[in-house]
Design brief:
Blueprint: E1 19-20, E2 31-39, E3 56-60, E4 63-66, E5 69-72, E6 74-82, H1 83-89, E7 104-112, E8 115-122, E9 127-132, E10 135-143, H2 155-165, E11 168-178, E12 183-193, E13 196-197, E14 201-204, E15 206-210, E16 213-221, E17 230-236, E18 246-247, E19 250-251, E20 267-273, E21 277-284, E22 287-294, H3 306-331, E23 346-351, E24 354-365, E25 368-375, H4 394-400, E26 406-409, E27 415-419, E28 423-430, E29 433-434, E30 440-443, E31 449-457, H5 460-471, E32 474-475, E33 481-483
Antiparallel strand pairs: 1-6, 2-3, 2-10, 3-4, 4-5, 6-7, 7-8, 8-9, 9-10, 11-12, 11-31, 12-13, 12-14, 14-32, 15-16, 16-17, 18-19, 20-21, 21-22, 23-24, 24-25, 26-27, 27-28, 28-29, 28-30, 30-33
Length: about 475
């Protein structure tokens, strides 16, 4: 099953705990469980008629099943936490019947192919809470063993997985849109089932996947004296929203945001966001500086260096490419060139349908501070960009859509997104080329730029779509989408 979540961060819950790597042959969960109740943010039971009520969650050796889907070869991570504190991070002040109080419990995170499926908080041997798709479900065990059809190697389970992974693709597309002051950001969800387009969903801010679940990246403009200043914050969507304010020179954050402040006002323009890193341009005091930051440390003054991501060889390649750029400037009579021995002034740009690593060099010309970007000619590492394949030739795409400025293709090779300056067109893919007739065409604001493309395939498409809807996404108005 193909799904691309390239992050490697551990779960970012507020409660401290110890990660216990269980043996690969032993599952910390087992048997057949049923959903008794859905817990709301007050720790009380949800209303009737909930889609999860009465459904089963099953664990067998090498298999996990829930929501009508089966995942092979799951992996587990166990974290021991203080129950009361952990529930607070999930909007659940208490679970009255459990009598947990200050008790420490195990929280078991389940992955398939390195991708996050959900978390299980064991209350005792017969009950646990399942955190999935922004919901908290109270489970009770109904059988010590899972159904026989879920035994690892069972052909029916394999056939179900095979059927679910083919012909179904979805993508979370992040957009940066010019505004009257600065930029706004938006996320689109575009999915197709055997080349039949589903309703296109949208939300404000950036909604993106990580190995610990889905996160939100928000950009908040802050009042300053005649200068542009904004604040970037990221949080797990199941955690409490940060309480941000400015006071006594500080901005305070809670539940996953650092209680720090930027050293100086600056406009921060996002160029790329992945599972664990963002690349952006920091504009301050006449200097436009490229930087890469970890999602977990957006307020940290420490920037990621080229050597941190690419090692010593990558750093040497950066220095060589920078020296070539400096030599080209010196040939033009420019001698006042800034130094960058640390390798921090680098980032990502889109070029011919792919992400490319670039560095930036600053210099003085005619009394003005200017800059020049140079290509590093290095493939971005998987911990920075997990999937960036263009299964169709860029030249073939340009031949079909001459004004194309960007393109994205599904790992299932079933749909392609082609962007121009004012439109995003969704095509089926057939015989290694764009289909004759597009599936839909979206009007884009002028100057809109794609800063994220995270793909899901197979049964993960339903899971991502449900999580995005639970986050608050809405279907695009008919007037903004022209269907085939």
């Amino acid at each position: 099953m193909l799904l691309f979540l390239g992050g490697c961060a551990e779960f970012s819950g507020a409660s401290a705990g110890k990660i216990i790597p269980p043996s690969a042959q032993v599952s910390p969960l087992g048997g057949k469980w049923t959903v008794l109740e859905e817990l709301d943010s007050n720790g009380s039971e949800g209303g009737a008629g909930q889609p999860w009520l009465g459904s089963d969650v099953q664990f067998a050796p090498g298999v996990v099943s829930f929501g009508g889907h089966v995942w092979d070869n799951p992996a587990y991570k166990i974290k021991r936490v203080k129950a009361e504190d952990y529930l607070l991070t999930k909007y659940i002040p208490s679970v009255g019947s459990s009598g947990l109080k200050s008790q420490k419990v195990d929280v078991i995170t389940v992955y398939a192919s390195g991708n996050y499926l959900g978390e299980f908080m064991k209350l005792d041997d017969t009950s646990m809470i399942f955190f999935v798709e922004n919901k908290a479900l109270l489970l009770k065990i109904v059988a010590e063993e899972a159904d026989s059809t879920l035994v690892a190697g069972d052909t029916s389970a394999q056939e179900l997985n095979q059927d679910s992974r083919e012909g179904i693709s979805g993508v979370l597309l992040g957009l940066r849109i010019p505004a009257a002051t600065g930029y706004t950001y938006q996320t689109l969800w575009i999915a197709a089932d055997h080349q039949q387009l589903r309703p296109i969903l949208a939300s404000e801010q950036i909604f993106f996947p990580r190995t610990s679940g889905f996160w939100e990246l928000s950009v908040q403009n802050l009042p300053t004296d005649g200068m542009t200043d904004n604040l970037l914050t990221a949080r797990n969507v199941t955690a409490k929203a940060p309480d941000l304010r400015r006071g006594n020179g500080e901005r305070e954050g809670r539940a996953g945001t650092e209680e720090q402040t930027y050293a100086e006002p600056a406009e921060r323009v996002i160029n790329y966001i992945g599972n664990d890193y963002i690349a952006m341009e920091k504009r301050t005091a006449g200097i436009n500086h490229l930087q890469v930051l970890p999602v977990d440390k957006l307020l940290s003054p420490t920037e990621i260096k080229v050597s941190d991501l690419l090692g010593d060889k990558g750093f040497n390649a950066y220095l060589n490419a920078r020296e070539q750029a400096a030599a080209a400037l010196r040939e033009k009579g420019i001698t006042s060139i800034s130094q960058d021995e640390s390798g921090e002034n680098f980032g990502l740009i889109r070029k011919n349908g792919r992400w490319s690593l670039v560095g930036r060099i600053h210099y003085q010309s005619g009394g003005n501070l200017e800059y020049k970007d140079f290509d590093l000619k290095l493939i971005p590492p998987a911990n920075l960009i997990f999937y960036d394949a263009l299964v169709l030739s860029w030249y073939n795409i340009k031949d079909r859509v001459p004004d194309a400025t960007d393109a994205f293709t599904s790992p299932n090779r079933d749909i392609a997104l082609v962007k121009t300056k004012t439109k995003l067109t969704i095509y089926p893919i057939g015989a290694d080329k764009l289909g004759e007739t597009h599936l839909a065409e979206l009007e884009l604001p002028e100057g809109a730029t794609v800063i994220m493309a995270e793909w899901a395939t197979g049964s993960y498409v339903d899971s991502w779509e449900k999580s995005f809807l639970a986050y608050g996404a809405q279907a695009l108005a008919d007037g903004s989408v022209r269907m085939r």
